[in-house]
Amino acid sequence: MNLPFTRLIGLGFGAFVACALALVLGLSVMANFRNTFSLLNDKAILTARSMETQIRTYFDGVEESVINLKPYFDTGDLGFGSGGDTLSNMTYAMASNSVLTVLVATDPLGRQLGVYRDPEGNLFPFTDNAPDGADPSSLPELTPESGATWGKLLRNEFGLFANVSVPLVREGQLYATLTAAVALEEVALSISNLDEGPDMTTFILADGDQVIMHSDATWLQTGGRPLAALPSDRLAYGDPVLNAIYEGEPLSEFHKAADLGVKLSMIEAADDEFLMMQVVIPGYSAEPWILGQYIRSVTFSREVRRLAGSAFVGFMALVVAVLAAVWIGRRVARPLRDLAKQSARVGTLSLDEVEPLPRSRVAELDQVALAFNAMVEGLKAMNIYVPHSLFIKLMRLGGSKAAEAREAELTVLFTDIVGFTALSQNMSAPETARELNDHFAILVRAVEEEGGTVDKFIGDGMLAFWGAPDAQPDHAAAAIRAARKIAEGLRQRNAQAARTGEPVMHMRIGIHTGSAVVGNVGALDRWNYTVVGDTVNAADRLQSLGREVEADAEILILASAQTVARLPGEAGAHPVGAVELRGRAGNMEVWRIDPCPAQEALHLAREPAAE
């Protein structure tokens, strides 16, 4: 029997978990419309905040322990004169906060009164000489007006300790100091657990330049073992990436993270590049801490797909803090984590990678899984007939509003296979379809790599354009680059066909730049995002003109003067002359475009000699 999700929320999670789930769902929705840098911005911010929350959750309770006891010392209810009662109350305080290692009151003469916790968790009261973590000679200088003050990290044979002190005041005078010390081993472990794999490293720098936590304590990403045990001076530790931490320039693409205090930079070390994330956390020792993470640059694409899951894991750390809801949290987290992961894939339209969400015993989650799976199937069906790149652009720009018909300056490209009708006469229907599909794959890849939009396939030809729906100032140059990529792809295909005895293809390409109407054109429920106008006709006429310019050319690219005028420094354009195109009044200046630039042709000419 399915359990109502609202009942589970009321029993276990409450308002806090409801907010966390709303954030996760919000992130999932945002992932559907954000590009790569936006996702990386969000990941950096979420990771930094998760690390900061781990630190603050751990240490704020330590600070509260001395703040809550201070009034009892100040009023005289507790003190050196009532040792037994004082030790009992300090023992209760230690028992209620399992992270505390030492709780001690120290007077100006060096007398001490407190409780410490041994490695097995047993509590022992003491008078004079704290066992570890609270050396009176290293306590911070306080005045009667001082608040809770964190001192310098202490290191001894028992480990590394952070400590916080408050002044104990009577009659306006400082008469003692109350200090709580805590071992850093557990907080270092919790931060280290944020390391997601061999390509990611998490670290903490404290007290200036000391490495107090490093998730690659046995083997570094760059190869080799650390040169020193933790804690260690940063340069002495032997991590090349940390050695260069202050040399990387901040990345301008991550301004959103920078505005929130998260610095991201690219570090070059050990013949590799690493994306470094840093956040400064003040307040838990004499100097600020630096929490950081770095990953190999080659893992960006994988990190994008895992962003939603990583963000959810970060927020799950908050849920785990609610001890009474641990069991319920784990049950609820599993389907939501799947939803976040699969939503991130939907956001990038990687629909073939989306895995169906499993059914759930929770009624609302079961409904979400059914609706999500149905949505994915619908998107897969739609994506078969709508160009992938156009789908992404329209989603990012706002759907139907971005598709409204408007006039814009565009560059239009028309292609046609020379004599394909004759070639296909000797082919079966499946062979013809396979040849066309392979051919169009070359064309579509070239167009999308240059930011263009494939409009439609017309027989063995293709219509594509640049400048909409995205504004693209260099749309003419992008179309020329795409044409050259098509030419290179066709050459490679023909070379392979010649070796296997298959027919080779010749091709004509026409390119023209001008004003055209672009947007939704159609009626009722049959709409098509397309481009219409004289500019489209001119591009078609230019590719047809190839029959007269050089009928037997393997690849012939003809462009109008309007297109060539937008190609400053183009050396591969040669005038054909003023030509009267069929169906158009007046003459048009036509240029022939080299299939590859002069410098590339020179490189290709030299390549066999180099071999």
TrEMBL record:
All copies of domain Guanylate cyclase, residue ranges: 411-543
GO biological process: cyclic nucleotide biosynthetic process; intracellular signal transduction
Listed GO CC annotations: membrane
HAMP domain location: 330-384
Pfam families for the chain: Guanylate_cyc, HAMP
GO molecular function annotation: adenylate cyclase activity
Parts of the chain that traverse the membrane: 307-328
Keyword Cytoplasm attributed: no
Keyword field: Membrane, Transmembrane, Transmembrane helix
Family annotation (PANTHER family): ADENYLATE CYCLASE, TERMINAL-DIFFERENTIATION SPECIFIC, ADENYLATE CYCLASE, TERMINAL-DIFFERENTIATION SPECIFIC-RELATED
Protein name, entry field: Adenylate cyclase
